[in-house]
Amino acid sequence: MATHAPAAMWNRLAPAWRLPLLRLAAAWAMLFVLFFADWAAMARQWWDISTYNHILLVPPIIAWMVWQRWPELQRLAPRGWWPGLILFAGAAFLWVLGAISGLDLARQAGAVAMLGASVPLLLGARVGAGLLFPLCYLVFLVPVGEELVKPLQMITAEITIALTHLSGIPARIDGVFIDTPAGLFEVAEACSGVKFLIAMVAFGVLAANTCFLDPRRRVAMLAACVIVPILANGVRAWGTIYAAQIFGIEAAAGFDHIVYGWFFFAAVLALVILGAWRFFDRPIDSPMIDAETIGRSAVLGRLDAMGLSGVAGLCGLVVIVAAGWSWAAIADRLEAPMPAHIDLPAVAGWSRVDYMPSIWWEPRAQGADHRLLGRYRDGSGHEVDVFIALYASQGEEREAGGFGQGALMPDSAWAWQSGGPAVDSGLSERLLGNGRVERLAVTWFRSGDLFSGSNARLKLAVMLDHLLLRTRPTAMIVLSSEDAPKGQAERSILAFQASTGPLQSWVDRITQVR
Q1: Coil, strand or helix at 184
Q2: SS3 of 307, please?
Q3: Among residues 334, 338, 336, which one has the least CA distance to residue 467?
Q4: Same domain, yes or no, for 474 and 364?
Q5: Both 232 and 151 in a single domain?
Q6: In a shared domain, residues 28 and 168
Q7: Alpha helix ranges (H) inside 124-190
Q8: Contact 471, 330 (CB under 8 A)
């Protein structure tokens, strides 16, 4: 009986839907195969990184949303739609930008967007309108949110210290570190609350569409799903500190891990649902879309008139994918000429000294063709550590501004403490080693005319170079100093910059790119 179920479903399917769905299935199968590396990378993040575990539920949620709309969708006539080629080309271009710059987020977003864009291309504007929300919900397949970790660490730390003071516990805050009578606490990346915030936003968007009709109530639901988990995470962190004052830091930390991992998200989710329940205004038997309204829409009628044969749409999709692959492959092979070796030069008023940090510190520069690390000291006792990495190109596993690259060494004694004082256009960060040694590190990137601490600006510069098939090297420069006494590191770095002259010119002479 079960073996006949697919055939029965196929026979119940309206004839007008059969070939368009076959073409869509073929297109999706091709896209999954060709971009399997991106989908596999996303799947590993969904499975291995707790921040993204909730994404494992997104595919069945999308399938459920399509199933909800299916009875109404069957009343629409699918057809090819040539403006869908523009949408699909835009999605493919996003993937190309990621592929030529090493920006995994853009690659993965492009792979997901191509799936979504193929639906209106092969099924038409009216069907695309009926599936608009599930197609937009595909965005939650992309593992995004790491950029929020540091701001959320700071917000959580501020909420925590405020509640700690209100509860009568003497405490001192320094960045994301809070010193109390029971010990020193760090609002670490895992305690930033980013995993629950991302999951709550995904839930909030789903609930706003499924449970509400009033736009104001939808906005309120989304706002609650952002504000409540942030505040709740601050309360959780405070609770850990408060418990530590009574039961000891080890007992409080163990309890926090259990609560944080098993009960925290469930409690926050239940709180939001209970608060919103009485305001749900979508009737239970209300269809998610109205095929009759979609069919009568004059705007959708004009759009749907821009027809295209299904075969032509499928062929256009293949041509766009082939062009994107070729462009990315050519750009990926581009490499700028590299000097045989580079050296740290003499600086007027400064001497090279042995590099002997209190706690070993060496920025990470995976895939760099040249690396330099040394220490300078002047007659006033200022000491500055200089790190330079030079890359022939930027791409997969050779990204100057990639995750885990730069001044903060992953899996080391060093932890991010807070943003540092402004130093020109550099990325200034305060680091703490083993809870006792403070260090200020300022990072810049040099590529073509760019000299900035902005990783986003570096990515844009690299994208432009690769789009134009232009080869230019990239350099990462980190000036750092141990901050003892407080404020000494900033004074040392500024004094060093004054001695080198314009830092970008000094770096260019070292890397021999000018």
Answers
A1: strand
A2: strand
A3: 334
A4: yes
A5: yes
A6: no
A7: 125-130, 132-137, 149-166
A8: no
Report the interhelical angle of 15-34 vs 104-123 (nearest 10°). 160
Pick from 491, 387, 513, 361: which is nearest to 444 by CA? 387
Length of the chain in residues, anyone? 514
- Whether residues 249 and 163 fall in one domain: yes
Per-residue pLDDT band for 435 (boundaries 50, 70, 90) equals confident
Q: Is 259 inside any structural domain?
A: yes
Main-chain phi, psi angles of 460, to 5 degrees = -65, -40
Task: State pTM to two decimals.
Answer: 0.87
- Within-domain flag for 99: yes
Nearest CA-CA partner of 192 in 238, 148, 252, 142: 148
Q: Which range of residues forms the domain containing residue 440?
A: 350-511
Domain match, 363 and 502 both: yes
User: Is residue 338 situated within a structural domain?
Assistant: no
Tell me, yes or no, whether 164 lies in a domain.
yes
Total domain count, the chain: 3
| Chosen domain end from 285, 305, 332 | 332
For 380-412, how does the pLDDT look when each residue is reduced to its tens digit (9 = 90+)? 999 999 999 999 988 878 889 888 899 998 889
Instruction: Name 398's bridge partners.
Output: 395
Are 190 and 123 in a shared domain? no
**Secondary structure in 3-state letters for 17-83:** HHHHHHHHHHHHHHHHHHCHHHHHHHHHHHHHCHHHHHHHHHHHHHHHHHHHHHHHHCCCCCCEECH
- 260, pLDDT greater than 70: no
SS3 130: helix
CA distance 116 to 317: 12
How many CB atoms within 10 Å of residue 124?
27
Provide the β-strand partners of residue 23: none
* Pair 213, 282: CB distance under 8 Å: yes
Q: Could you tell me if 190 and 223 lie in one domain? A: yes
Strand order in the sheet with 183-186: 172-174, 177-180, 183-186
